[in-house]
Design a protein that fits this description.
mainly alpha; 16 helices
């Protein structure tokens, strides 16, 4: 969109990036938590109940944000007139992604991975086609955004009704929270971290805003893919198929492909956006380091949360997030980078200490469960 309509529209990605974590909160509570609960406690009605409740709560939340988009843009220190239309588009698009995820997550737990991937591909093709193609011929932002939203909404509604069966309402919020408490509370903290951290960084000028936007552009989709490492681990844990060494090996294969994609996207897109090179390399470099470290702690934390102590895992995860949150207020445009690397380091240390000194059986039991 930055190429076809207005170069500055790349900053929409960073502007609404904190909203991704509202989606993550609802994904965790109404998606992951409900599915783990359903399989651990044999209550399949909870899955569709979570989807419906997530759709309703999410709708009210994102509509409220869209209505108040001007206030949000001002809080982030950006130009209201320049970003209003696609700010609203981005917020509503995030809601549609939430609805899609709730359905796809259900399919993953049913081991219908091919179907889930197919639906995700269809969604992305529709979204891309009805956004980019109209933008080639139409320069009116409102018309382009409306066409894309309507097409994507129709697709999501179709997918939803094709994958929801009759069910009885079954809601147990506390159990849903328990089974994904780490990611849930992490998403809450990340909302605050990026809301205040990006607002802080944007104050240092457009060079930093553009570098952050570019870095996020070439790594955010990869983070969505990387989170499948934790999803796969949880699925195998609850179904007693978990094997630590196999999960770690597969995780690093995935990370290798992700790093290749980041480097490729950097090479292709950097000449177009031309953000300040040294600033961009700092932001992208921090992301790459975190990608490499991610499998080393997330698999262990998932196992500890489900099989040992959800409270312990959640508390320590939030200690790392609190460190990151506090560092997001440092008076430097690199506050988010410093917080990200500090949080990663803490989680690496914590997960290894827990495995080696407190829960020494984690890896061995994980191997035995996979046999």
């Amino acid at each position: 969109m930055g190429i076809l309509i207005e170069p500055s529209l790349i900053n929409i990605f960073s502007l609404t990036y904190p909203m991704q974590f509202i989606m993550s909160i609802y994904k965790s509570l109404f998606g992951v938590g409900t599915n783990v609960y359903a399989y651990k406690e044999d209550n399949k009605n909870a899955i569709n109940s979570g989807i419906v409740l997530g759709i309703i709560v999410g709708l009210f939340t994102f509509i409220a944000i869209a209505i108040n988009i001007d206030k949000y843009i001002l809080f982030m220190g950006m130009d209201v007139d320049k970003y209003r239309v696609f700010g609203i588009y981005s917020v509503l698009q995030i809601y549609l992604q939430l609805v899609l995820y709730l359905v796809i997550n259900k399919l993953h737990y049913k081991e219908e991975n091919k179907k889930a991937n197919k639906l995700s591909t269809i969604f992305n093709i529709v979204n891309f086609s009805f956004l980019i193609i109209p933008a080639i011929f139409i320069k009116n932002q409102i018309v382009v955004a409306t066409i894309a939203l309507v097409a994507t909404a129709i697709t999501v509604i179709f997918i939803l009704f094709k994958n929801i069966e009759k069910f009885r309402i079954s809601i147990n919020i506390f159990k849903w929270i328990k089974y994904d408490s780490v990611d849930l509370t992490t998403s809450i903290m990340f909302l605050l971290i990026y809301l205040f951290g990006l607002s802080n960084a944007f104050k240092y000028g457009e060079n930093y805003a553009l570098a952050i936007s570019f870095s996020t552009l070439i790594t955010d989709a990869q983070w969505d893919i990387t989170h499948s490492i934790g999803v796969a681990a949880r699925i195998d844990i609850v179904k007693n198929k978990f094997k630590y060494s196999e999960h770690l090996k597969n995780a690093f294969k995935l990370i290798g492909l992700i790093l290749i994609s980041i480097i490729a996207m950097f090479g292709i897109l950097y000449p177009i956006y031309k953000s300040e090179l040294y600033i961009t390399l700092i932001y992208v470099g921090a992301e790459i380091i975190t990608f490499i470290a991610y499998p080393l702690y997330i698999i262990k934390i998932c196992y500890m949360q489900i099989e040992y102590s959800a409270i312990n895992a959640t508390i320590n995860k939030q200690i790392s997030n609190t460190i990151r949150f506090i560092l997001s207020f440092i008076p430097t445009p690199f506050c988010t980078v410093i917080g990200q690397l500090a949080s990663m380091t803490y989680q690496l240390i914590y997960s290894n200490i827990m495995v080696r000194f407190k829960n020494k059986k984690i890896i061995r039991e994980g191997e035995e469960n996979g046999n």
